[in-house]
Design goal:
9 helices, DNA polymerase, domain 1, six-stranded parallel sheet, homodimer, alpha/beta
């Protein structure tokens, strides 16, 4: 059974993302330095994000709303208007941020797209992810783009049925053990973990034990060889 | 050439939406009554939304961010924190609002789904639209769901190719002349306009002149008969 389809996560797999969130969070810490230390602020922000995830889902707009809410809470409603305006500006800058692909991405995707169907599978704000894909210049390499509100077993089954030849003949590649690797393995696909330098707290999970369809790579540059190794030549 | 596929808009076509935005906007007017009259506030809010559309796209989260930004501008940054908290709360309430289908929707969709492939085609926040579809109880009637960042000719061509037998054998149904009717006609599909009581300023456009693939209906209850009339029986 050959691999026909390669699913790829986007943020922190193809291009930098969490770094930009962290830089914005640093700016947020500095803005509220008179009201709370970094540890307190980060803990409160994580609580707000978790509470709002059900309503806001993933992405920059929800992150911006949660920063404003956290600022209001931490200042007892005394946050100066300048703080709110700065947070709004930081959110807009994230949405307009240049897209920087990670080392090896362009070459790896070009090589893979010759032999496999590539499908982009990502969470986040719809328009923002479309913008980043367009800005990355990688759009033409993908046979399909799926921007989803959650990544679970059913989603991978449905996507690999729709755009490929089923999960058994697909591999999912990404930096999140929780969203990219574990549910794809549950769906019966192969899965490759390529860690990014930093991981959002909500995405942390343990690696699977001894799973024969699981691989871990240090760089996406090694992906074409890994996939070819799973595909016996005629 | 028979119609095989019926594309349906969601907000204000299947369920109430603009009404909820207007109620929130009324609350926003009341909150800032000391700073601006209704006309000024609505004009400024429309400007902010238009300016941000390119970055935020459509949906409740962007609307909430634009309300906060407008409040900050109109008060010269002197908006009390209570105003910001109220706006955040209003946004969350919109995202948790019960879904109320419009009269005749359930019966019309049940009748259509027996003979045609139904595809939901909507803009807005991903998670919010998925939630509303689930809450509407209509989810099982659709062969496919497409949540898109923009509705233009290319989008309709792509969706009706992917999920149907091409735009020539599809009809798009919705309350927006600009987003549902005109680009679907451009794509070569049929299009039916079913006006909602109120229309968001950004969605207003003139009806097409004398187009033989265009129809206007007062209620979705009349849709099954209209579609059947375009489909000669064997």
């Amino acid at each position: 059974m050959n691999i026909t389809t390669v699913g790829l996560d986007a943020d922190d797999t193809l291009w930098h993302n969490e770094t930009i969130f962290r830089l914005t969070q640093d700016r947020f810490v500095a803005l509220l330095a008179d009201h709370a230390d970094r540890a307190t602020l980060e803990a409160r922000m994580a609580e707000t994000e978790k509470r709002n995830l059900r309503l806001y889902g993933y992405g920059v707009k929800g992150f911006t709303l949660s920063m404003i809410e956290t600022a209001m809470e931490l200042t007892g409603g005394e946050a100066p208007a300048s703080v709110v305006r700065e947070i709004l500006a930081a959110g807009r800058e994230m949405l307009a941020h240049p897209v920087e692909t990670l080392p090896g991405v362009d070459e790896a995707l070009a090589a893979l797209s010759d032999r496999y169907r590539l499908v982009l599978i990502t969470k986040g704000d719809l328009l923002d992810q479309e913008r980043k894909l367009a800005a990355s210049g990688l759009g033409d390499l993908f046979a399909a783009i799926e921007i989803v509100s959650e990544k679970d077993r059913e989603i991978y089954e449905r996507i690999f049925d729709r755009h490929g030849s089923g999960a058994r003949e697909a591999v999912m590649v990404g930096n999140s053990m929780k969203s990219d690797v574990l549910p794809a393995l549950e769906a019966g696909a192969w899965a490759v973990h390529i860690p990014y330098a930093i991981t959002w707290a909500h995405e942390v999970a343990d690696a699977p034990d001894n799973h024969d369809r699981y691989g871990a790579l240090a760089s996406i540059a090694d992906l074409p060889e890994w996939v070819a190794g799973r595909t016996p030549q005629a």
